[in-house]
Design goal:
Length: 129
């Protein structure tokens, strides 16, 4: 079982199920929310148990798009969209080590910060259309 938590320890969570490999999201929202880019694993929402759900503060960055942070220390923890209620993204840096995961994919690379040098070998995606 994987586990993780925020910087101050107010939020601890467990994942009783498979974790997706890590995707980097460079979109402007994730860039501002994390201060860099969101490196996210993901799991079935029903597999994730948060010890104290009231310790997570949810911010609706857009209709149906929610970012979950620790209400005490501000750590970036979770991301979810109403369109996929069964799916929860988990900020990979909050997982307890070792995760056994690998970074495979970069999203919204056109919005990546100009100082960021993207890793070789990642599958890159950009705005749809
Ligand atoms: Zn915290
Ligand atoms: Zn993003």
């Amino acid at each position: 079982m994987a586990s993780g938590g925020c910087l101050c320890g107010a939020v601890r969570y467990e994942v009783d199920g498979p974790l997706r490999d890590v995707w980097n999201c460079h979109c402007e929202r994730c860039r501002r929310w994390t201060g860099h880019h969101l490196a996210a694993s993901a799991a079935a929402a029903s597999d994730v148990t948060v010890g104290d759900p009231s310790a997570v503060r949810w911010y609706a960055a857009a209709p149906g798009v929610h970012y979950g942070s620790c209400a005490t220390c501000g750590s970036s923890l979770f991301w979810k969209v109403d369109a996929e209620p069964g799916h929860l993204s988990i900020a990979a840096g909050t997982l307890d080590q070792p995760t056994g995961l690998a970074t495979t994919t970069a999203w919204w690379v056109s919005e990546a910060a100009d100082y960021h040098r993207r890793a070789d070998g990642l599958v890159e995606h950009d705005l749809e259309g």
